[in-house]
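Chapter summary example.
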Amino acid sequence: MNTTPPRHSVSVSGVIPDDHGRVLLIRRRDNQHWEPPGGVLELNETIHDGLRREIREETGLDIEPDALTGVYKNIPRGIIALVFRCKITGGHLTADEEVTAFHWADESDIHQLTSEAYAVRFLDALHGGMQPAIRQHDGIDLLS
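The structure predicted for these 144 residues follows.
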């Protein structure tokens, strides 16, 4: 019997809309996938501080979280992702060692450039209701 408690990783990411209904996508250097900016929450930081840090590191932008729009679990990898709609408060888009490109995407772009597991995060942030979405996925596709 395995007595080691289960471990999960918690990540935070931000969906950043512009005034034209588009959202900011980043292209990750390691896998070339288009995703919302974000990353792993560190043990010693608050959720919002981790979100601000990750977005600043990956985009050069300062943000303020607006609303939690979804909680997503990658079942095979044990990753819980907290996704927030965010407002830009300062900074300038600047690529770093983790990001190769930025793209302001409309809904058509989102569907073309991202996997279902990531597209739904953007769409939930753009069109979600008062309650955050809670979804499971396998890293690519949503699970029922």
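To summarize the output: The helical segments are 47-59, 107-113, 116-127.
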